[in-house]
Design brief:
Length: 94
């Protein structure tokens, strides 16, 4: 079972954290050189397109792109921000 099935869109952040799922629903990008859409499916899943021009990494936790970034189209989808995140957005500190 992948994390998108376990925690579909709309799953609150606190619930996702119980399953070690971050804030990115689908971490993916399309290589404009070969046209392949590649997706990082879990933390440290480093996926590379068939021509080697683009790699994605990070799963649901972070967006990392390697290769020719000017020849890629970002396609990632994030989980919706819940009310708890909206209240604390921009607040840093203690």
């Amino acid at each position: 079972m992948n994390y998108q099935e376990l925690c579909p869109q709309g799953t609150p952040k606190a619930e996702r954290r119980k399953y070690s799922v971050g804030d990115i629903f689908e971490n993916k990008a399309q290589c404009l050189q070969c046209g392949e859409l590649i997706m990082s499916k879990h933390l440290h899943d480093f996926a590379t397109c068939k021509c080697g021009g683009l790699s994605v990494d990070g799963g649901s936790w972070y967006l990392k792109r390697s290769g020719t970034k000017t020849k890629c189209m970002e396609q990632s989808i994030f989980y919706e921000v819940d009310n708890e995140n909206k209240k604390h957005k921009g607040k840093r500190g203690l």
